[in-house]
């Protein structure tokens, strides 16, 4: 298993190109299930989850072919030959559940493995299922699979989500594009990745209004066409490198990053003493003064994203004063805390909140990654620490971050990937 060795204490300076967003790209690929024509996606990141999604789409009979030599533009489309999403793929990547709505909408049936929980929480999919039932689907759970059918096709209706779930909004939104009549999703999630998906679906001929607001109105159409779409830049990758600049007192230009996508992250960086400057097609982040403790509460967009919580915690471990981080989205997203404490951090968890008492410095240690963002929080800690940190189980990181060692080395970090 590969691992990273990080020798900390180097200031990061220079430019990092932010890749296409994992959490937009995966859903945009799934949108390829909604048409028999070709969907051409560019700015595709080279990460393991995108590979897994290619495997899943091919399992459904959909062709996924690179258009350029590097495979950063993909052509997706074709007839659906299987409506089954098997356990071995879904258990690898929870976003696989998003094929359920599109399969039902186009093929009128689906058999999708239940995803189960993961390291950060139990993560039920009840809102996806209830919403699809509202659109007329018959759903039966059997042998760990969701068996769903809508022989006459889905029919539009009003769906009130009790919580603004990102995945449920996306599943229902895609399903509704081919339903008969009008669907209204109330209390829809407003994450920028959903707006990116809506933009692409509308290019494919869907009729969706309200992107970026809490109410999506979808007028179903007979069929969707092919289209071309560039995946938005990854706001979480952008925020992650901003924390790396923050802990090292660095100065980074994050190419492709957009302030408007970062929501509450910008204000929180500034409160912590990291300056954020908007430039043309880039964000510049730098820190000259001390890091200061801040309080954070994770919330749906435009609030502070749960996917940035672990990275901020690593940075705040060496801030002046205390910080309180409250996690409201997932019930078990503090797995990085014991590892950060092994590096000298002083963090106590009480229920859904963590108190971080800033220490003078962290010290390198062997640590273990538990999930995607937790992995990067340990890299951030390692970059700011004295001495050497070895991070193992980095397959979690490979799910969602491309070329971490290359990007960080190019801006002055001492980081090495050891392949075994
Ligand atoms: C691939 C992808 O885009 N993943 C993102 C997506 O995950 P995902 O789409 O799974 O996140 P949701 O917004 O659906 O989940 C948020 C909370 O709602 C709960 N819930 C969700 C659905 C449901 O049917 N029932 C239910 O109880 C979940 O268990 C969780 O506690 O949004 C999360 C919240 O911004 C991010 O952290 C993930 O990175
Ligand atoms: C939690 C994440 O992803 P997923 O929903 O795919 O587990 C994430 O991107 O931080």
Please indicate the count of domains: 2
Please give the share of residues in helix: 25-40%
CATH class of the largest domain: Alpha Beta
Number of strands: 24
CATH topology of the largest domain: UDP-n-acetylglucosamine1-carboxyvinyl-transferase, Chain
The small molecules bound here are:
uridine-diphosphate-N-acetylglucosamine, phosphoenolpyruvate
Uncertain spans = none
How much of the sequence lies in strands comes to: 15-25%
> Could you name the CATH homologous superfamily of the largest domain?
Enolpyruvate transferase domain
**Which structural class do the helices and strands define?**
alpha/beta
Q: On the 0-100 scale, what is the average pLDDT?
A: 97
Number of helices: 15
What shape does the CA trace take? globular
Alpha carbon gap, first and last residue: 6 Å
Largest sheet: 4 strands, mixed
The largest sheet has its strands arranged as: 22-23-1-24
* Rg, Cα atoms, Å: 21 Å
- Under the CATH scheme, which architecture of the largest domain would be assigned? Alpha-beta prism
């Amino acid at each position: 298993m590969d691992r990273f060795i990080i020798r900390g204490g180097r200031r990061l300076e220079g430019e990092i190109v932010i890749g296409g967003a994992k959490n937009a790209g995966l859903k945009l690929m799934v949108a390829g299930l909604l048409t028999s024509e070709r969907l051409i996606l560019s700015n595709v990141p080279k990460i393991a989850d995108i590979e897994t999604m290619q495997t899943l789409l091919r399992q459904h009979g959909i062709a996924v072919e690179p258009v350029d030599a590097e495979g950063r533009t993909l052509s997706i489309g074709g007839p659906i030959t299987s409506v089954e999403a098997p356990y071995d793929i879904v258990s690898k990547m929870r976003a696989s559940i998003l094929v359920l709505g599109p399969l039902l909408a186009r093929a009128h049936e689906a058999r999708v493995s239940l995803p189960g929980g993961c390291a950060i929480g139990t993560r039920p999919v009840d809102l996806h299922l209830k919403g699809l039932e509202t659109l007329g689907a018959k759903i039966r759970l059997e042998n760990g699979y969701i068996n769903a059918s809508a022989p006459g096709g889905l029919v539009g209706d009003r769906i009130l989500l009790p919580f603004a779930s990102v995945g449920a909004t996306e599943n229902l939104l895609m399903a509704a594009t081919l339903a008969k009549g009008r669907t209204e999703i109330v209390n829809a999630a407003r994450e920028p990745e959903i707006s990116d998906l809506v933009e692409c679906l509308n290019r494919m001929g869907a009729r969706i209004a309200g992107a970026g607001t809490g109410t999506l109105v979808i007028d179903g159409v007979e069929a969707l066409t092919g289209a071309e779409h560039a995946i938005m830049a990854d706001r979480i990758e952008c925020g992650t490198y901003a924390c790396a600049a923050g802990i090292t007192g660095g100065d980074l230009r994050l190419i492709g990053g957009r302030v408007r996508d970062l929501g509450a992250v910008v204000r929180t960086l500034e409160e912590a003493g990291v300056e954020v400057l908007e430039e043309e097609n880039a964000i510049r982040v730098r820190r000259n003064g001390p890091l200061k403790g801040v309080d954070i509460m994770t919330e749906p967009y435009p609030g502070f994203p749960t996917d940035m919580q672990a990275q901020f915690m690593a940075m705040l471990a060496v801030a002046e004063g205390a910080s309180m981080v409250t996690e409201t989205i997932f019930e078990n997203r503090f797995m990085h805390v014991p590892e950060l404490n092994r590096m000298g951090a002083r963090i106590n968890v009480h229920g859904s909140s963590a108190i971080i008492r800033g220490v003078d410095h962290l010290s390198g240690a062997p640590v273990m990654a538990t999930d995607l963002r937790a992995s990067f929080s340990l890299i951030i800690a390692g970059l700011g620490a004295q001495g050497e940190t070895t991070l193992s189980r980095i397959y979690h990181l490979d799910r969602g971050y491309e070329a971490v060692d290359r990007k960080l080395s190019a801006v002055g970090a001492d980081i090495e990937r050891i392949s075994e």
